[in-house]
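Researcher: Go.
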Amino acid sequence: MQHKITTIMTLIKRQLQNYIQERMFKGKAIILIGARQVGKSTLFQQILKDSSLPVEQEQIMSLYCDDAHVRELLEHANNLSDMRQLVANNRIIYVDEAQRIQGIGLILKLITDHFKDVQLLVTGSSSFMLQGKLYEPLTGRKFEYHLYPISTQELMNDGGILRVKQLFESRLVYGSYPDVINGEENIREILLNLSGSYMYQDLLSMEGVRKPVLIEKLLVALALQVGSEVSYNELAQTIGTDSKTIEKYVDLLEKCYIVFRLNGLNRNLRTELKKSKKIYFYDNGIRNAIIQQFNPINMRNDMGALWENFFISERIKYNHYNGNHVNTYFWRTTGQQEIDYIEECNGTMRAFEIKWNTKKNKTRFPKSFFDAYDVKETIVITPDNYLDWLL
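Model: Structure:
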């Protein structure tokens, strides 16, 4: 039986909205990147509708690059004369899915350099598509933001602690994509569609990615290993390819904002595992859709992994949106001593153990870790106290 999310259909204000509005008309393009369907277009549309915007609606031009006519228009506006005709009297130019335009970086550079009173707002689904086409031409000419699925802090700001608690169990299973949080019908269907090739179709269009079936098998294997160390050699044997291909595809999946890596911390002890890594999903719902496992939490045998994936992904959102610049790791030794999650800031460490069921055994942090590193704080994260680190 599908878990019903009881919520009111409403647009949740994203934390990035205020940051972006404060940086408008500062002479730089504003680039918003992130996975498909995390709400990039909705966020810009909300900004464009804001009554405090210092321009008339008639001075806003929206260019949706899924439209072939828009692509043709932009790709041919590659000189200053054509660009003047395109820009005309507009004060804001919104370019949606910019990675679809050939030479988009040079086009945006032309606007930024020659139309100082025009604000560019640009979205892109996959950073690796934008990096090659966008980053070099716009060096020093852009503000860039990463939008994630809805965060715990955004839920708190929108509906208070009650809404955060009401949605807790459903977010562990169905995740935090806007359509899920906003109470759309057919949540499973939404997630199954999202977790398919739609989410990484830009990746499939790249030269050298000729076997989408390998990506699908790799995603299943990664979903089943959340919270565990992964070996590219073992993954290669499991899905029938080589470790170099696994490494390449994991890198591309990261750039599609589907998964992210935690590397093992290894600096001071000979017993620390070298080159070890764990791979997590940015969203629990996507992870569960990939393995088609939507059982409620009281009927699951993977709650430890789900809880770990949830907290670490939420903590990454929290740090990013709040400007906390930290290095993130896990730690493990050949003697099986382990710490789930570590944040390093200004040379000091904060160590987290992430426990769904705290009754099983008492948590002890390894003494060898304290001897080797400057540890500022140790925290055991449970469903009872996790909000202290996400709000």
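Model: The first helix runs from residue 16 to 22.
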